[in-house]
């Protein structure tokens, strides 16, 4: 029984507009017949023709939402036929059928065609009244009919505008919700990429140094125990630094205030420690600085440091020999950096699509700069970046 009731209620909800039209048509038909039958000027009963025409005028309203213009024509002709059959003795409420149809036409179509059709309908209704009752061509019935027709058109037009306004409001709300979801996904993606870059650049760098020093320790363990102990000490230091960097990055994920945590405070001021760490691993770095050295914007300072760090890490892993050239040029509107090292013949050079170089490109592009990474004609691997100093103008 409950299932049947639920099914019936669902059917009513899906077709509530049609059911409402049926109810309006039936109620109007009953009111028209009752008021006509009880009119003192009418006889005691209505004929079959009157019943059929009244049913046609009111029953056509069931289809008013699907075919408003057709229903308006049928209701108008049937209503006037009903009045003609009654010879003007009562039954005026049947005119509510074409007025309701006129309201629906105004609600479903534009203002201009509704005004034209509505004017024609009012003229037809008024003309029939004049034919039935020639003495009432300027009577109150025709004036009331014209006023009701204008009211039906105005009400339908207002309803159409309100429905369009509500649809636009709903569309704006849905679009705003979609924009918020897209913005949230974009921010999550950007934060995820930022953390991935920090993990790769910081932890990957330290682990690369640890791997190099571990290889040195294994190579000299039996012949040079002192050098092996030094290499293992460097491994321990690199692992400790990697854990520190990892703890700092994980701390970004545990931020509870919802704000964007600041990036790790490293920059070109720590370049000397970075170079000395690679020097301990056996890498010889030839460093050149030109231009007036000065404090850089934090974002530029961090990006320059991370690009040099990744380039030196790739040089220690893939390079041939131990010689690396590092150049820094402090310009007036940008800082340019270059890291160049030879690559051993047959050795696998750093992939330009790897996470490290992709991360460098993302960092540089975020500042509106440019980066080139790849082998040159001499067989050396070259990383060159240009970072603008005016990062405020970057969107």
Q: Could you explain the architecture of this structure?
A:
- By secondary structure, the chain is of the alpha+beta class.
- Among the domains are: 2-137, no CATH class; 267-395, Histidine kinase-like ATPase, C-terminal domain (Heat Shock Protein 90).
- Helices cover 64% and strands 10% of the residues.
- It is built from eleven helices and five strands; from the N terminus they run H-H-H-H-H-H-H-H-H-E-H-E-E-H-E-E.
- The chain has helices at 2-14, 16-37, 48-59, 68-86, 96-108, 111-132, 140-220, 225-253, 271-280, 298-318, 355-366; strands at residues 284-291, 323-330, 334-342, 370-375, 380-388.
- The protein has a five-stranded mixed β-sheet, with helices on one face.
- Strand 1, helix 10 (298-318) and strand 2 (323-330) form a beta-alpha-beta unit.
- The mean pLDDT is 76.
């Amino acid at each position: 029984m409950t299932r049947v009731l639920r099914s019936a209620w669902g059917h009513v909800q899906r077709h509530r507009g049609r059911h409402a039209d049926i109810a309006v048509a039936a109620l109007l038909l009953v009111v028209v017949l009752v008021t006509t039958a009880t009119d003192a000027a009418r006889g005691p009963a209505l004929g079959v023709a009157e019943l059929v025409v009244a049913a046609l005028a009111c029953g056509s309203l069931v289809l008013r939402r699907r075919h408003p213009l057709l229903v308006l024509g049928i209701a108008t002709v049937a209503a006037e036929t009903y009045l003609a059959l009654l010879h003007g003795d009562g039954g005026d409420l049947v005119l509510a059928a074409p007025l309701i149809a006129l309201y629906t036409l105004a609600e479903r179509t534009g203002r201009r065609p509704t005004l034209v059709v509505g004017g024609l309908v009012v003229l037809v209704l008024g003309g029939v009244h004049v034919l039935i009752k020639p003495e009432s061509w300027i009577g109150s019935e025709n004036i009331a009919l014209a006023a009701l027709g204008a009211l039906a058109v105005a009400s339908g037009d207002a309803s159409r505008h309100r429905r369009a306004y509500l649809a636009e409001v709903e569309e704006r709300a849905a679009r705003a919700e979609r924009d918020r979801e897209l913005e949230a996904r974009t921010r999550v993606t950007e934060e995820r990429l930022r953390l991935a870059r920090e993990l790769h650049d910081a932890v990957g760098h330290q682990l690369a140094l640890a791997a190099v020093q571990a290889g040195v320790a294994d190579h000299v363990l039996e012949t040079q125990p002192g050098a092996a102990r030094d290499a293992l000490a460097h491994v321990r230091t690199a692992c400790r630094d990697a854990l520190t960097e990892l703890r700092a990055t994980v701390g970004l994920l545990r931020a509870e205030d919802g704000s964007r945590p600041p990036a790790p405070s490293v920059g070109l001021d720590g370049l000397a420690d970075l170079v000395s760490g690679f020097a301990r691993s056996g890498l010889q770095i030839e460093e050149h600085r030109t231009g007036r050295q000065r404090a850089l914007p934090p974002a530029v300072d961090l990006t320059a440091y991370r690009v040099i760090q990744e380039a030196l890490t790739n040089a220690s892993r893939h390079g041939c020999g131990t010689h690396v050239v590092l150049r820094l040029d402090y310009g007036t509107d940008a800082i340019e950096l270059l890291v160049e090292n030879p690559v051993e013949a047959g050795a696998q050079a750093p992939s330009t699509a790897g996470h490290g170089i992709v991360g460098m490109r993302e960092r540089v592009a975020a500042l509106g700069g440019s980066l080139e990474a790849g082998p040159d004609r001499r067989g050396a691997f070259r990383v060159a970046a240009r970072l603008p100093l005016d990062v405020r103008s970057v969107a």
